[in-house]
Structure formats: C-alpha cells, structure tokens
Amino acid sequence: MSAVQALAAPTPAAAAAEPLLSVNNIEVVYSDVILVLRGLSLAVPRGKIVALLGANGAGKSTTLKAISGLLKTEDGAITRGSVSFEGEPIHALDAGRIVRKGIFQVMEGRRIVADMSVLENLRLGAFTRRGRAGAADLERVFDYFPRLRERTGLAGYLSGGEQQMLAIGRALMARPKLILMDEPSMGLSPLLVKEVFGIIRQLNRDLGITILLVEQNARMALQAASHGFVMENGKIVLDGSAAELAANEDVKEFYLGGSGERRSFKNLKSYKRRKRWI
How many CB atoms lie within 10 A of CB 44? Predict the structure, then answer.
C-alpha cells in the first residue's frame, strides 16, 4: 500500500464509527404529486436501538418504507437523496434484495398471514435466505417467544400480543442485521406493551440486532432507545440522546403527556411559533 493509500484508508476506529444505516437528504413523492418526506436525514449506529417519534402523518412509516424498499407497493418513490446500508447505496434496490442484505421490516398492524399456521408464518420469514430455515432458527424464536411453541392452529386466532410476537419472530427467521419496527405497541394492553418492549431490548442486547423503532408510545420508545429523532411534516426537527429528548420541555409536552404544568389551548395553538427547532 502506498503512503497516499495508507492516508486515505479509514482506520479501524473510523470504520467502527460509521453508522450501519444512513438516510441522506431524501425526498419521497407518492403518485408523482404528493411530497411526503422533505429532505430527511438520519443515521442509525450499529448495535443500537434508535427511536423515530412524531405525530400521526409526520412521515414515520413512509421513512421505514423508503429504507425497506416498500414504497413501490404504494406508488411512492425516492426522488432525491440516498439511503446507504453498511456503506453501500440501497435506495435503488427492490425490497427482496434489501431483505437479503439484512434489513427486515415489521409492519404496522403485524401483517401476519391469518390463514397460515404459526410455523408456516415463521418459515415465511426465512424465504429470502439461501438455505431453508433450520430447527435452530425455529428454536431460537421459540426460546424468545415460548407461547408460540404452544400455538399450533391458524395465526389468525392468536391474540394481538401473540400476533406481534409472531411478527417479530418472523423477522428473526431472516437473521437480520437491522429490524425496522413500526408501532409494535399498537392495540396492545399496557402489560403486553411492557412485555414486547422487554423482548425488543433483549433481542438487541443478546443478538446485537440494530433496531429503528417507530412508536406512538414515546415514553416506552425513549426508555428502550439510546438515541431518538423527532419528525414533523416530513422532516427531522430534533434529535439527541434518549435522555436529552426525555428531558426536553417540548418533547415532554407534546409526546410524553405533559411536563406537570397545565397549559392552555392558546399555548398549544402557538406550538409551531414557540418551539426551539423551527
């Protein structure tokens, strides 16, 4: 290696610091006319849980679909910017190739196949892998979700919590490096929400799976995550460590159920004028 090449080559420390996923200034348009994401950028470090927060309609689910290649199924497209995974651009790839690279999306509302068995749903998660799902893969899923081992009927008869566990288990069957989770707490009781988030933290800790988490329950998301981004109107308006966001007065007021001080409707209406990130 020449001296110039040696200077240009990244050091091991620099390579380790590179994010696993980088979304760089992307714009997303639906049906050629509806602009949903407006120059959105974010980075997800390897081995971390990152929360993506925002109100309904902010563009959170669209962001996940832009990463996973599912925009085409809804007549959407990235018209500007790029998405990189492990340093390689993936925004022009189809969803199947993106899954093979190690990204799996757990969709909002679970999206299990109701008229297939639990076992068939799990094996479906390994469809894109070169080899078939082995007994070891299934055993690993059942170790994390022992209730699924007992369910031998159709997946449509599972409870909401069990369906969410099945959706996450199906993602594990693909042996992903990054899981995109869209509203895992939707429709679940508070007790089940705690259980599901405990499993999410355990998967990250035990298996080192990186997780980008979209979640309306901002309190639970920030407790699980190490870093977070706040979206509004298709762009990132605030980011920081989970502790910083949890302590931010605007985040407390609008995402964590208030900061303990009663605020009037007049103050709520002036939110866009008073918040610090505009």
Answer: 23
